Amino acid sequence: MIKLITAALLGAAALGMTGSANAAEKPAIVLVHGAFAEASSWNGVIKKLEADGYSVTAVANPLRGVKSDGDYVRHLLASFKTPVVLVGHSYGGSVISEAAYPSKVKSLVFVSAFAPDTGESAIDLSGKFPGSTLGGTLAAPVALNDGGEDLYIQQDKFHSQFAADVPEAAAKLMAATQRPVTSAALGEKSVNAAWKNIPSWFIYGDADKNIPPKAIAWMAERAKSKDTVVVKGASHVVMVSHPDKVAKIIEEAATAK
């Protein structure tokens, strides 16, 4: 009897160890929002990823500058003991490409995002192809003590410009809680281009009014994207309007060998 109980306990322990090992195999997911958004823009994606057993962290991106924001995210990544899938939206794409070295990042996912090469800025890339109407929707810049300026989208133009495929009530809340980006950050040249060495995935909407879809397609091709998903009719915030599709491509990047 004692031998049977011992064997049963050992078997249960072995199963527990296997379960823990399987959980440990899943990389952590780190989400970095872009300009005029904030961490809750990932809520729908987070629910789906967590339901599938992933550990998720949505970073409060400072939106002060590519290098400083990249350093901020890099310090966070240093605390992870598991591999990481690093995901960036919009300007957050510049940040993740800057932040990925040195770290345990196994994959990059660009969600309606910039993927700049060394020496390129968000402004450079958004103007590479026609189609962005962001400039005409910006409010008067807010002066900062350091001589810089913060940029916001006018709240009455936010829905149409930024989140046209999101219900109006939700877009109104997003407009009120938008985080400003410095004008200097959008014009700052990138130093690192992590997509050159780390496998990358892209997803974006063909109705994006912030970054021209042709620009994102061009960046995805340049980065030799492992998979590029174009969501018909989706706005710049495809992670809000289509969290299922965004979660799916993140999981694809997480499980890729």
Automatic annotation (TrEMBL):
Residue ranges of every copy of the AB hydrolase-1 domain listed in the record: 29-248
Signal peptide (residue range): 1-23
Family matches, as InterPro entries: AB_hydrolase_1, AB_hydrolase_fold, Sec-Metab_Biosynth_Hydrolase
UniProtKB keywords: Signal
Pfam families noted in UniProt: Abhydrolase_6
Annotated SUPFAM superfamilies: alpha/beta-Hydrolases (SSF53474)
Domain of life: Bacteria
Protein's UniProt keywords contain Signal: yes
Listed name of the protein: Pimeloyl-ACP methyl ester carboxylesterase
High-level lineage: Bacteria, Pseudomonadati, Pseudomonadota, Alphaproteobacteria, Hyphomicrobiales
